[in-house]
Amino acid sequence: MANAPPTPPPTTATELHDQSRSQGSSSNPPPPSSAAPDTFPPSFPLIVDLASKAQYRELIRKAEETDVLSNTSRSPSRLFTVSPLVLTYLILDDIPPAQYALARLPDSLSSLPLTKALFDLVVATAERQYSKIYSRAEALFNLASQPDFPDVKLASLIVNLVTNFFEAFRHRAFVLLSKAYSSLPLSLAQVYLNLPGDQIIRVAEQHGWKFDALSQILEPRATTAPVPSTDNLASSSLSTFRFIADSVAELEA
Fold it and tell me: Judging by beta carbons within 10 Å of its beta carbon (0-12, 13-18, 19+), is residue 209 exposed, middle or buried?
């Protein structure tokens, strides 16, 4: 009697989740494709809409309400709520509730790659490990940008919120630099930032700093600089965030 053909390996997020439940605890970490499920809670479209409008307080209220109602759930669908919740808290620099949102997840969800990436970023931000914030934010950005990320809508939301986190962090960093310096030679800024002078000038001028081309001096604006607009938030980039992280690391060293 011929042998039966082998059972094909699981490929979808649902099959992978079912397999992990049947196998119990395992020492092997789940693959990247298990970072999120292929279904989302009814509140997710509203969360996406609130994020697109930068209505962060409303987003937090809705996400907290949704996650509290599902606080006993072990379904990966909770990441559709917890991921934007954590990133929004980081945008607002409200670290303790971001930590708590991750801490209340069950072990089966804490071990997922997406949860680990969020946790690493929260830890770096909470401890002000500026040299690590960039690399961990970029890791999360790249995870959501992978072509095999299970849900396109969740990936798009994560990328958007991480990008907005970069801009919010940049604003706070420039406020800090403005408190520390009344004038800053461009050559010194280049030592601090390890970036081309023209890029430093462009980013600095976006925050209201003045640049004297004759003396090559940057004059930081007072700390009353306005909060960036939503349009500016959407135009942020990973390279700009490295500019922030390196500058603050040098300042606080």
Answer: buried
Give per-residue burial for 150-171: e unless 16+ CB within 10 Å, then b.
bbeebbbbbbbbbbbbbbbbbb
C-alpha to C-alpha distance for 188 and 185, rounded to whole angstroms: 5
- Strand-pair partners of 218: 184, 211
pTM above 0.85, yes or no: no
pLDDT of residue 71: 82
Helix (H, G, I), strand (E, B) or coil at 233: helix
Number of H helices, E strands in the chain: 13, 3
- Would you state the pLDDT for residue 131? 66
Helix (H, G, I), strand (E, B) or coil at 236: coil
Beta-bridge partners for 185: 217
Query: Which residues are bridge partners to 212 per DSSP?
Result: 217
Comparing C-alpha atoms, which of 122, 132, 72 is closest to residue 100? 122
What is the rounded radius of gyration, in angstroms, for the C-alpha atoms of the chain?
21
The predicted-structure confidence for 53-74, as pLDDT tens digits, reads as follows 999 999 999 999 999 988 888 9
Measure the CA–CA gap between 87 and 201, rounded to whole angstroms: 29
Give the distance from CA 139 to its chain's centroid.
9
Residue 172 in tokens: 């706070």
